[in-house]
Design a protein that fits this description.
single chain; mainly alpha; about 75% helix
Length: about 80
């Protein structure tokens, strides 16, 4: 799986599948290690894609208001959950 060509949604789907297999616990140790390594790469890829989107949102907000840069806050932080 070519990391740079994978969409966020595809990476999350694959990551969920990997987590499910690892939680099931019936994979050989060598396979579990390979799945874990792939999962870590996918997690990092998703994190970097989210950071990129966050920067774009900050720029858009700054461009719209022209006054100040407002960082993106996830919905659960807005509610204080």
């Amino acid at each position: 799986m070519e990391e740079q060509q994978v969409s966020f949604e595809e990476a999350m789907e694959r990551l969920e599948l990997i987590v499910g297999r690892l939680e099931n616990g019936d994979v050989p140790l060598e396979t579990a290690i390979e799945l874990f390594q792939e999962g870590m790469k996918l997690s990092q890829l998703c994190g970097s894609k989210l950071e990129e989107v966050e920067r774009k949102i900050e720029v858009l907000i700054e461009g719209e208001s022209g006054l100040q840069k407002k960082p993106f806050a996830p919905a659960n932080e807005d509610r204080g959950d």
